[in-house]
Specification:
Helix 4 runs parallel beside helix 7. By secondary structure, the chain is mainly α. The radius of gyration is 31 Å and the shape is elongated. The chain has a two-stranded antiparallel ribbon with strand order 1-2. A two-stranded antiparallel sheet has the order 3-4.
């Protein structure tokens, strides 16, 4: 036998009484602007670029070492079919690998300048001291190791004709100098790739700057008395205006440079495989790769991460916008108190499921 349905509560306690004089009407936070088709496509391309560049670096280093050993060993004991990339005069080797560090600097220098100019709020001394200095340090290590490689080859080798005792005279006479030639190509391709990856990490959470600007401007305009946890809260009004202007102006250039850097980094990996298969012997390539990885590890994993180190890591500036893995987000969670409670979901103040309704009736009785 069906029981009589219990009437609804006469007072809807889940809805605020708008006539209450103590209730203060406040505005809501501004919503984001609609995303255009062009912006959506750009974000998709940038997502793929980030996936390619920010592949687990530790795993990538392990892959570099493993393939350097295995592929180079296979190339030493077997005959690899000759392809276009096996020719030393191929287009990529002639115009890119031979000038690899120049290509790195050509793309990374404006990228670092534009990004650091934004998150350092235009403080030139901070940009030079903590960000452009990293490029100079990387260039120094590139010059140092390639010079050492040349010295080792010239000191520990001999000419095909015994009457020539130096590398210069041997090569000038048209003969072959047989020396221990640590692969400079392997070094520059691996170190250059890791250099590109580390310096572009500041682009992570880049779009969050726009959201921080929007919320901070609203907070200052509305004079909201609630606690402000925005990372831009300590910036002056002049710094806020400059940040907003620079972010809008330079972000399109930063995105274009990131796409070009991604293509260049992929090219370095392709040419590295070509070097493993067709050039040098295994020990020469392996030593070049190990030195590249050790140099990267020393600078980006030991030196720059120190709290008092000069220079800082990419992305460290006047405010903090990059979230580390496992760090809680500062975005407020949606309020769910009027939708669910400890027993289960509610609809118009009443439990949806029968067992919850019976428990509610028992408690109210």
């Amino acid at each position: 036998m069906a029981t009589k349905r219990r009437p609804l509560h006469t007072k809807l306690n889940f809805r605020p009484n708008i006539s209450d004089s103590n209730l203060e009407c406040r505005g809501t936070k501004p919503t984001c602007e609609p995303t255009s088709v062009k912006e959506t496509f750009t974000l998709m391309v940038l997502y793929l670029c980030k996936k390619s560049l920010f592949f687990d670096t530790n795993l990538k280093v392990a892959i570099y070492l493993g393939t350097l050993f295995l592929l180079s060993l296979v190339a030493d004991v077997t005959t690899i079919p000759k392809l276009y990339l096996s020719r030393s005069d191929n287009l990529f080797n002639k115009y890119f690998v031979k000038f690899a560090w120049g290509w790195n600097l050509l793309l990374l220098t404006p990228f670092v300048v534009f990004t650091s100019y934004i998150y350092c709020c235009g403080q030139k001394q901070l940009i030079i001291k903590h960000h452009l200095l990293r490029i100079c340090i990387a260039t120094f290590f590139w010059w140092l190791w390639t010079s050492v490689f040349n010295v080792i080859e010239a000191s520990f080798g001999r000419c095909g004709q015994r009457q020539f005792t130096t590398k210069g005279t041997c090569l000038h006479a048209g003969h072959v100098w047989n020396g221990f030639d640590i692969s400079g190509h392997t070094f520059i391709l691996i170190y250059g790739s890791l250099f590109l990856i580390e310096e572009t990490r500041c682009i992570e959470n880049w779009d969050s700057i726009k959201e921080h600007l929007r919320l901070e401007n609203h907070h200052r305009t509305s004079r909201d008395p609630t606690e402000n946890t925005n990372p831009l809260r300590n910036l002056s009004d002049d710094e806020m205006r400059e940040l907003q202007f620079n972010y809008t102006k330079y972000t399109p250039y930063i995105r274009a440079l990131l796409m070009a850097i991604t293509l260049l980094q992929i090219l370095w990996d392709v040419m590295l495989v070509s070097t493993m298969l067709y050039y040098h012997i295994m020990i020469e390539k392996f030593l070049g790769g190990v030195l590249a990885i050790l140099t990267w590890f020393f600078t980006y994993r030991m030196w720059y991460v120190h709290p008092k180190a000069i220079p800082n890591l990419p992305g460290q500036g006047v405010f903090k916008y990059i979230k580390k893995k496992g760090e809680p987000q500062s975005v407020p969670r949606r309020r769910t108190g009027s939708i669910v409670n400890g027993r289960g979901p509610l609809f118009m103040g009443r439990p949806i499921y029968p067992q919850d309704a019976q428990q509610d009736d028992a408690n109210s009785g």
